[in-house]
Amino acid sequence: MKMQLKVLAGILSIVLFAIACEKTMPPTPDESELLDGPIEGLNTAEQAQFLKGDEAFGDVFTIEKGLGPIFVANQCASCHAGDGKGSPFVRFTRFGQPDTLGNQFLSFGGPQLQHKAIPGYQPEQLPSGVTFSDLIAPAVSGLGFLDAVPDAELVALSDPNDADGDGISGRPHWNTIPNYVTLRPNSISQNGKYISRFGKKGGAYDLLHQTSGAYNQDMGITSLFEPIDPYSGLEVDPEVSTQTVHDVVFYLKTLKAPIPRNQDDPDVIAGKQIFSQIQCASCHTPTLTTGFSPINVLSNKEFHPYTDMLLHDMGSGLDDGYTEGFALTSEWKTPALWGLGLSKDAQGGSYFLLHDGRAMSIEEAILLHGGEAEQSKTNYTQLSNTEKEQLIKFLESL
Q1: Partners of residue 92 on adjacent β-strands
Q2: Which residues pair with 342 in a beta bridge?
Q3: Which pLDDT score, from 0 to 100, does residue 383 have?
Q4: For residue 241, how many other CB atoms are within 10 A of its CB?
Q5: Residue 86 to residue 137: CA distance in whole angstroms
Q6: What are the CA-CA distances from residue 176 to residues 131, 183, 185, 208, 395 (Å)?
Q7: Residue 397, CB-side half-sphere exposure with 13 Å CA sphere
Q8: Is 28 helix (H, G, I), strand (E, B) or coil?
Q9: Structure confidence at residue 34 (pLDDT)
Q10: SS3 for 55-100, per residue?
Q11: Average pLDDT, consecutive stretches of 10 residues, N- to C-terminus, the chain (398 residues)
Q12: Residue 193, strand partner residues
C-alpha cells in the first residue's frame, strides 16, 4: 500500500511539474513569425539533405577546421541570424572596383576586407585611397524560388532604355560566370555573359557561386570550387568538402519563403494599394513565377517576393564608388521585401536597412531612395500621415 502511494505521489509530481512548465514556457511562435524552416512538400531524402545543410550552415569553423588565417566570420549563421538580415555589427567590406573594368586590387586583398585574423596573423587593412562599400548580409529565406525564375522573365521585366518613359530602366546584370556553375534551363546569354542575380549588386550567378564565394571570402575556407587561399593567394587543398557545400546550397534553396501576416487587416489592404499607386511596385515586383527546378516543390510556382532582381540606378546618395561585375557604382539590385517585418528579430530589435544598414526605419529607407526611385519617394512624401502609416503597416506585414 505504501509503495502504491509513493508511485501515485511520484506520478502526481511529474504531472504537476509538466503543467507548471507548460504554463511558464513561452508560447511556440507561429510559422509566419519565423524565417527559418523548410519548404513544405520535400520528400524524405530532401528533408535529410535540408537538415545536413542546416547543420553545416551553423557549423563553427576553428583553426583546426581551416578558419582563416584571415576572415570575417567563423560560421554562416553569424551573419544570417535566424536566416534573417545581418546588422552593421557583423558587416563586411568590399573594395577595389570603382568602375566596370574589373577589380584592380586583387593583389592587395580584394575584393573583400578580412578584418579579423587567427593568432599570429594580422588582419587586413584597407589600402589607402581605395573605393569601398560596407555591406550587411541579406536574409536567406526563399532563395530557391528566386534561383528558379527563368531568365526570360527577368528580361521581360527589364527596360534598360526606359522605352515606356516612366523614368525606371531596370536591367539584368549580364556578368561573366565561373566555370563550375551549371547554367539554368533555357538560360539566355548576351555577348558571352549571363544573368547573375544574388548579392547586393547581383554579382553571383547562382547559390553555388554565392556559397562558395562566402566560404572563401568570409571564412577563409577553400573548396573545390574556390581553391585559392585569400591570404597567400595560392591554390590549396579543399578545407570544406564538396558534399558539404552542396548540402548548404540545398538548404538555401529549400528554406521556406517568408509568410505574410495580417493580410485581412484593412490598413494592410489599403497599404498594399498605396504601394502600387506610388509606383513602388515598378521595381519591387510583387509576383514572380518559377520555371522548372530539379527540386519538384520549386517548379512552376507563383510566389510574392517584391523584387524584379534587376539593377536600378539609385542616385548619388547611394553611390559609394564601388561596384561588382558590370554594375555601375550607383546601381543596386532591387532587394526582395518579403520578410521585411521580421528583420528586426535578426538585427537585435532595430531596423538596419539598405545595403549598408544606414536606414534605421522603413520611412528613412524610403526617403534615401533616389535616381530611378526619386518619383516614388516624392509620391510617398505627398501622402497623408494616415496613408504613410498604412503603407508602413503593409510593408511590415510582408
Answers
A1: 135
A2: none
A3: 98
A4: 12
A5: 5
A6: 22, 12, 17, 15, 34
A7: 20
A8: coil
A9: 85
A10: HHHCCCCCCCCCCCCEECCCCHHHCCHHHCCCCHHHCEEEECCCCC
A11: 48 50 64 90 98 96 95 92 88 95 93 96 95 95 98 97 90 97 96 97 98 96 97 96 98 97 97 97 98 97 98 97 97 97 90 96 98 97 98 97
A12: 190
Grid cell 509530481 in the structure block, residue: 13
Q: Report the candidate in 158, 26, 143 with the shortest Cα–Cα distance to residue 84.
A: 143
* Cα angle value 67/70/73 (rounded, 5°): 60
- pLDDT at residue 82, as a whole number: 87
Q: What is the DSSP string of 150-185?
A: -HHHHHHH--TT-TT-SS---B-EEE---TTS-PPT
Q: What sign does the CA torsion over 196, 43, 241, 218 have? A: positive
Alpha-carbon distances, residue 37 vs 33, 253, 278, 396 (angstroms): 11, 11, 34, 20
Contacts of 378 (CB under 8 A, 6+ apart): none
CB proximity list for 176: less than 8 A, separation 6 or greater: 192, 193, 194, 325
Predicted pLDDT at 78: 87
What is the chain's length? 398
DSSP 225: S
Strand partners, 301: none
Coil, strand, or helix at residue 25? coil
What is the rounded distance in angstroms from the CA atom of residue 189 to the CA atom of residue 210?
Answer: 20
190/188 Cα distance (integer angstroms): 7
Query: How far is the C-alpha of 61 from the C-alpha of 68, rounded, in Å?
Result: 9
The verdict on whether omega for the bond into residue 98 sits within 30 degrees of 0, i.e. cis, is no
Q: How far apart are CA 290 and CA 300, in angstroms?
A: 5
Q: In the prediction, which pLDDT does 346 show? A: 86
pLDDT at 15: 47
Place of cell 510566389: 303
